[in-house]
């Protein structure tokens, strides 16, 4: 081969990140590399989270921790060096050892006091993309979450709490639009609303006089478009509707075979539902058209909402669908027929994209438009609440617990722990604190006893396995928030490692 | 005393909160206090299979939770693409055996922990080796190796000797998804019992690859499956790990794609298809490894009930998990004790039966050899027996095995044989 292999083979960085680039691509990687994290405390859980973000190449992290390494830290934290770290700054030791994981990452230890920063330098936080706090003292947490919530240009906050085998975490964010949700739904092929070039192509084929080999290689898309057109012509322009008609339609497909083993016609039968399932804007996408941001759209609105508004306008006109995408699934066909069909879809998708662009009221970057149109069937907008909102609303908390008693009871027990002052509270103290969060007279769920007993057993334990488990879960969510890919949690994620489950409340 | 010379006061302050008193769901037999600490820290001996993405995490967690005698087996050496998650390795370690580097790292970082590496295959070790451990944790990506390990531990069980039952904790990940499970060999569902839960590997029909390519993958398969052996002959095997080989395939696949107007052949896709690359990230491995080690900790200490028996996690859309009891299969060829009923057509030939076995999701066997009580039906090796039994391939199964008769299926890749009870339709 004449091609110089050095030109096509990936460079070292791409090779290093190969297994993750297959999940979030170069765009996700760039977002990760531009992100700046602040992690409050150098606890075992904090370093477990950071490890999973330093390895994939987050741009920068700061550990804010004014305390020295204790004997117990040295025992349960992998990013400390046993007894030799005892007495040194926990932030500095952890940063030093975490940085060994990846040359491409910048890390800093900050031994200042959080309370002091909150008092005298609140703009400190604006240098970060995201703040993570583990087992932070409730009063400081309250101040921090209020500060970060007050201004939506300030970073998101991830609050992580753990005690023994139990734990939970919450992401405080205002608004999180997602284009690349990696939805498992596939976009419509629009067989029921075939675009003119596809319709023409299907009508032009002479099925009856075709070479038998060619006949076995027509794509199911074309077979269905043709069969549907023929059916509609004979049925007042209506697709098959009743069970009997659908059966008849499928039998018609089978009778088009010239040989019994034509798999393309079997595929057409299996996909026949596409003929009577109307392609519309999916309901979760049309729900986004009610988004408040669309009502107040201006040149400073995020591009996502300009795109969403153009999508809304696009869907108002016939054929009342999302723009066509050019991605075609594989199907039984010879190369020529498949590529021909692919060209038709590409050409049409290009036309519809131009149409879509003409509806934009504000210029948006072309690459973003491409991505938006391609992923339009999986768009999401998440809206969050301030941390602690649920615990301040007794009625809402009670009904959330009723809806998911296991996760709810565990969350309640952890919230109770934050509200007692003793470092070794009794079950009675914890139960009273829990009861105080609920409307007077509310009966605690039976699952609460298990949760509160476990908390009273190990109220301050940062167990290595729990830390690692939370470390993985929190890092997954942080990656999803930063890359704006996949779908993060919208409320508390609660874990119980006695029975090994996770739950959402 | 529950401390060893390298332990310092408060070293286990966090873990001891768990070991010094029971929780509400702890088994009444749990003996809180020094006894359990001493067992964990001076007696328990644990084996980790795999020092890769899961293995690195597993070793670190076990060491921190107080296991002091850890063994690790891995046959691989370190590749640059491991460094985004296998956090005990550095660029300078590329090319060195994973088991050895991982063991060195853990012993350096966590004082007083002995990690004994073995750089080689699990199949190199015999029953006596596996009998020395209290627990086995498997963090592998190979289905074949996991089947072997699970079957080996099932076969190890001697009903007369309770010590011969070695709990197996198995973890696996793919992208944002993963699972962890606890297998009590012969008592709960084994790895083989759940084989049908695996995704079917994508297979492209040869005629598509050869004649009607439509996707970039078809062009890549054409280059690797058909062109490589045709051009290089039978002696030069394709090495998936050799970038020059991938480049050769990429160039050929690109040219073919161009000829057929197919878009999307890239170097990375070529490598992905040829090596069957599964996306992998540190965070998912951390979750699953933590879950495996947490079960090991609970089993070794009885400080809490252990998982019964399967935990599945999907992290792509929120955090979704499902904890359930996977049922033991009565006709499991490894732990079920009875044969698998297989109704087949009376017209089916031996060759077709072999194809059927290779395709079946709950069997998944490569190159099976078949025999009955009285006949060697078809043997893949040695060559003289293969030649002697080859004429049977075109015979009908019915002419060799009576209805209700049994066929024993063996394969070099598996440590057990599969019994089929044949009936004809
Ligand atoms: Zn089994």
From TrEMBL, chain A:
Q: Name one GO molecular function term.
A: NEDD8 activating enzyme activity
What UniProt keywords apply to this chain's record, in alphabetical order?
A: Ubl conjugation pathway
Coiled-coil annotated spans:
none
What's an example GO cellular component term for this entry?
cytoplasm
Family annotation (InterPro entries): APP-BP1, ThiF/MoeB/HesA, ThiF_NAD_FAD-bd, Ubiquitin-activating_enz
Similarity section: Belongs to the ubiquitin-activating E1 family. ULA1 subfamily.
Biological function: Regulatory subunit of the dimeric UBA3-ULA1 E1 enzyme.
**What is the official name of this protein in its record?**
NEDD8-activating enzyme E1 regulatory subunit
Report the source organism.
Mycena indigotica
TrEMBL record, chain B:
Pfam families per UniProt: E2_bind (PF08825), ThiF (PF00899)
Q: Which reaction does it catalyse?
A: ATP + [NEDD8 protein] + [E1 NEDD8-activating enzyme]-L-cysteine = AMP + diphosphate + [E1 NEDD8-activating enzyme]-S-[NEDD8 protein]-yl-L-cysteine
Q: Which top-rank group of organisms is this from?
A: Eukaryota
- What region holds the E2 binding domain? 342-425
Main enzyme class: ligase
One BP term from GO: protein neddylation
**Ligase keyword on record:** yes
Listed EC numbers? 6.2.1.64
GO cellular component terms given for this protein:
cytoplasm; nucleus
**Which SMART domains does the protein's record reference?**
E2_bind
Q: In which pathway does it act?
A: Protein modification; protein neddylation
List, from the UniProt record, the residues annotated as the active site of this protein. 207
Cited PANTHER family: NEDD8-ACTIVATING ENZYME E1 CATALYTIC SUBUNIT, UBIQUITIN-ACTIVATING ENZYME E1
What is stated as this protein's family in its record? Answer: Belongs to the ubiquitin-activating E1 family. UBA3 subfamily.
- Stated name of the protein: NEDD8-activating enzyme E1 catalytic subunit
| Species for this entry | Mycena indigotica
């Amino acid at each position: 081969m004449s091609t110089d292999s050095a030109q096509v083979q990936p460079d070292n960085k791409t090779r290093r990140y190969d297994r993750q680039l297959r999940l979030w691509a170069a765009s996700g990687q760039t977002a990760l590399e531009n992100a700046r994290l602040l992690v409050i405390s150098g606890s075992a859980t904090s370093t477990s989270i950071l490890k999973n973000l330093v390895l994939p190449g987050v741009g920068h992290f700061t550990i804010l921790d004014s305390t020295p390494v204790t004997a117990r830290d040295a025992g349960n934290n992998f990013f400390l060096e046993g007894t030799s770290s005892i007495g040194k700054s926990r932030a500095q030791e952890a940063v030093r050892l975490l940085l060994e994981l990846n040359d491409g990452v910048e890390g800093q230890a900050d031994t200042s006091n959080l309370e002091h920063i909150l008092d005298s330098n609140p703009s400190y936080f604006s240098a970060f993309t995201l703040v993570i706090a583990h087992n932070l003292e409730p009063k400081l947490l309250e101040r921090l979450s209020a500060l970060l919530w007050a201004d939506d240009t300030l970073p998101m906050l991830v609050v992580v709490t753990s005690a023994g085998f139990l734990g939970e975490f919450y992401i405080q964010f205002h608004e999180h639009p997602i284009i690349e949700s990696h939805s498992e739904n596939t976009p419509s092929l629009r067989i029921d609303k075939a675009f003119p070039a596809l319709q023409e192509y299907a009508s032009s084929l002479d099925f009856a006089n075709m070479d038998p080999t060619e006949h076995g290689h027509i794509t199911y898309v074309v077979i269905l478009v043709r069969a549907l057109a023929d059916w509609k012509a004979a049925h007042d322009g209506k697709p098959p509707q009743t069970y009997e008609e659908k059966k008849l339609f499928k039998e018609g497909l089978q009778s088009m075979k010239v040989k019994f083993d034509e798999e393309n016609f079997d595929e057409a039968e299996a996909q026949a539902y596409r003929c009577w399932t109307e392609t519309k804007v999916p309901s979760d996408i049309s729900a986004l058209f009610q988004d408040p941001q669309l009502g107040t759209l201006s040149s400073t609105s995020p591009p996502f909402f300009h795109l969403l508004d153009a999508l809304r306008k696009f869907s108002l006109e016939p054929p009342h669908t999302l723009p066509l995408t050019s991605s075609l699934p594989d199907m039984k066909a010879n190369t020529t027929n498949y590529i021909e069909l692919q060209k038709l879809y590409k050409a049409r998708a290009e036309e519809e994209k131009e149409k879509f662009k003409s509806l934009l009221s504000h210029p948006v970057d072309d690459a973003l438009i491409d991505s938006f149109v391609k992923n339009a069937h999986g768009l999401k907008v998440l809206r969050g609440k301030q941390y602690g909102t649920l615990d301040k609303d007794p009625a809402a908390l009670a009904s959330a617990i009723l809806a998911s008693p296991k996760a709810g009871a565990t969350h309640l027990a952890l919230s109770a722990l934050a509200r007692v002052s003793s470092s070794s509270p009794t079950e009675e103290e914890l139960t009273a604190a829990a009861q105080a969060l609920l409307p007077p007279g509310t009966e605690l769920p039976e699952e609460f006893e298990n949760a509160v007993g476990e908390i009273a057993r190990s109220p301050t334990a940062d167990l290595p396995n729990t830390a690692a488990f939370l470390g993985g879960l929190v890092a997954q969510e942080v990656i999803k928030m930063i890359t704006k890919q996949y779908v993060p949690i919208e409320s508390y994620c609660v874990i119980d490692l006695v029975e090994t489950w996770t739950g959402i409340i | 005393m529950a401390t060893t010379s390298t332990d310092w006061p408060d070293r286990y302050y966090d873990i001891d909160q768990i070991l010094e008193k029971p929780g509400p769901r702890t088994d009444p037999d749990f003996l809180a206090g020094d006894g359990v600490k001493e067992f964990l820290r001076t007696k328990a001996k644990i084996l980790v299979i795999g020092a890769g993405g899961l293995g690195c995490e597993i070793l670190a967690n076990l060491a921190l939770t107080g296991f002091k005698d850890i063994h690790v087996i891995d046959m691989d050496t370190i590749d640059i693409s491991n460094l985004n998650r296998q956090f005990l390795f550095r660029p300078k370690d590329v090319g060195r055996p994973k088991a050895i580097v991982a063991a060195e790292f853990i012993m350096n970082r966590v004082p007083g922990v002995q990690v004994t590496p073995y750089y080689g295959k699990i199949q190199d070790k015999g029953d006596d080796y596996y009998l020395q451990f209290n627990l086995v944790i498997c963090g592998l990506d190979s289905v074949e190796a996991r089947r072997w390990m699970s079957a080996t531990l099932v076969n190890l069980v001697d009903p007369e000797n309770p010590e011969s039952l070695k709990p197996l904790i198995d973890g696996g990940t793919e992208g944002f998804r993963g699972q962890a499970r606890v297998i009590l060999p012969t008592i709960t569902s084994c790895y083989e019992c759940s084989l049908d839960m695996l995704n079917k590997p994508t297979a492209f029909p040869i005629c598509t690859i050869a004649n009607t390519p439509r996707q970039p993958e078809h062009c890549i398969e054409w280059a690797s499956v058909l062109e490589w052996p045709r051009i290089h002959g039978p002696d030069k095997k394709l090495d998936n790990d050799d970038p020059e080989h991938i480049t050769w395939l990429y160039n050929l696949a690109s040219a073919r794609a161009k000829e057929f107007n197919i878009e999307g052949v890239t170097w990375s896709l070529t490598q992905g298809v040829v090596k069957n690359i599964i996306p992998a990230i540190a965070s998912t491995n951390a979750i699953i490894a933590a879950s495996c080690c947490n079960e090991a900790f609970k089993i070794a200490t009885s400080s809490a009930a252990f998982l019964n028996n399967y935990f599945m996690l999907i992290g792509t859309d929120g955090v979704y998990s499902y904890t359930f009891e996977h049922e033991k299969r009565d006709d499991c060829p490894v732990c079920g004790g009875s044969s698998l009923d297989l109704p087949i057509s009376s017209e089916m030939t031996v060759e077709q039966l072999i194809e059927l076995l290779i395709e079946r999701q709950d069997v998944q066997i490569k190159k099976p050899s078949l025999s009955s009580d009285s006949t060697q039906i078809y043997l893949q090796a040695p060559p003289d027996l293969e030649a002697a039994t080859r004429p049977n391939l075109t015979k009908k199964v019915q002419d060799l095995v009576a209805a209700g008769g049994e066929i024993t299926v063996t394969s070099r890749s598996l440590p057990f044989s599969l019994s089929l009870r044949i009936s004809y339709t």
